[in-house]
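Notebook, p. 212. Picked up where the previous page left off. The plan for this session was modest: take the two constructs that came back from the sequencing core last week, fold each one, and keep the raw output in the notebook itself so nobody has to go hunting through shared drives later. Recording the first one now, exactly as returned: residue sequence, then the structure token string.
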Amino acid sequence: MKKALLAILLIISVLSASAQDTLVDKARVRRNVGIVLGVEAGLYAASMTGLYFAWYADYPQSRFHFYNDNAEWLQMDKMGHGTTSYIVGSFGYELLRDAGLDETRSIWLGGTLGLAFLTTVEVFDGFSDGWGFSWGDMAANTLGCGLFVGQQFLWHEQRITLKYSFHTTEFPDYRPDLLGENFIQQTIKDYNGQTLWASFNIKSLFLNKESKFPAWLNFAFGYGATGMTGGFDNALEHNGIPIPYYDRQRQFFFSLDVDFTKIPTNNKVLKYTFKVLNIFKVPFPAIEYNTGNEWVWHWIYF
């Protein structure tokens, strides 16, 4: 108890000594944080409204209901949910920290932004006749958010980063309505070409700060799937055109990666450029193992 009281007194004395300097800073921080929160709230409302009218409005609505889609797309959509929740939360946190908000509140208000965004999407699904509220999606959303929040509280940095990569495949040729009619659509819809990665920073996880090892070098484990022309099962034909038979296979990858946020810079534009680039796994050679019991070497893998 005495130590706690002494700590409180020391904190009060420090705050009192710096009060004159921080009053102006507090006003600036409140203004900046208010702007960031206002922009985030506006973007949230606009994106949800746009999503509703672009995706849900033309489909029949129903009473709120649940839907078990855990076996769909060999869980690639679940991996995507977790990765999206993580990435959106990391940007929400960075914006609030740059606005001057303290670490703890930035983690809770910004780091959970992805979870809030995707929970709204799940509620929309719950009222849509063609879908339903998915507990599997919510679990993935929560895990992605938890990975960011947990690391930030534990280490005050992200030593394990969730990332995305994509390469084109032949499967949209058979189901363009489902897997995408052009490159942009395919980056979102074609799970065959997506790989989701957990990228581990070698130096911050395993070495000391004084080590000369490159701070930006990571190794990464990836998960992908291929051979899918339907969500739960493959289609045999589409619009009367036969579709070849494909084995649906899970793919597991090991590769190297770059953590752009570990490249030091004082330039804010460059800092945010690196932050955006860090969403994507850098192409490197990779080793693949798949459920067809095959080992595959890729000289360069996207």
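Okay, moving on. Second construct, recorded in the same format:
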Amino acid sequence: MQNHDFAIRTAKSFGASVLFVALAWPLTAHAAAPGCDAPLDLVRFANPLARVAKKLTSGKPITIVAIGSSSTAGAGASSPAANYPSRLQVELKQRFPGHPITVINRGIGGEEIGDMLKRFDKAVVAVKPDLVVWQLGTNSVIRNHPLNDHGAAIRVGLNKIRATGADVVLIDPQFAPKVIVKPDAAHMVALIAMIAKQHDVDLFPRYDLMQRWREVDHLSFKTFVSADGLHMNDWSYACLAKGLGMAIAEAATRPVLSAAAGSFAE
């Protein structure tokens, strides 16, 4: 009888332990997700966003067009709601509650800069945007295409955007296994940065941000890159959007004196 009672108590104890583990597991998995590391010192724009600032002051609706390739379309995201333009709209509405802000996704997978330029008039100019976020460069790098004419093509795109009066932000390639193995990856990042500086347009340093996750935060690639080794995932799209939203908000509400100075010493 005693052995029977002991067996029952043991079974109940074992069952309770299994139940505890089952309940605790999702909490542990959730807690293990890293926090978003996108410091303002890294993502802060060099120039103020004058058009967005004006719309914020006047209370008028703000339209943002995100144009690019698969990173913009949302390859690697679990749903359209998890891509970076969708997450950016959420971030900006949280930062400016009550202000009408629309982020339009004009990403098409596989495109290079020349492909995007062919649809700029319909995809970007016709929308009459207040801000254009242009993600570019990755596909040319992974396909080993020469970078010789990319500078001229980027300048053509910037001229088209500026003719609308919209603010501009460029987003450079991602720091992902299938990108960083290419010899021209760093050259493309440097080229985009140089053109942004020459033309006084803002740059969101996605490459440096993702490199920080890997080399400073010591995150595994599987934490922020999809299984294909190229595209971002829900976590990294959300963190990118958080950093981009923070940078947009800061640049659009920057004091006049800081905007005039054009440099930000820490």
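Notes on construct two before I forget. The radius of gyration is 23 Å.
Flagging for discussion at group meeting.
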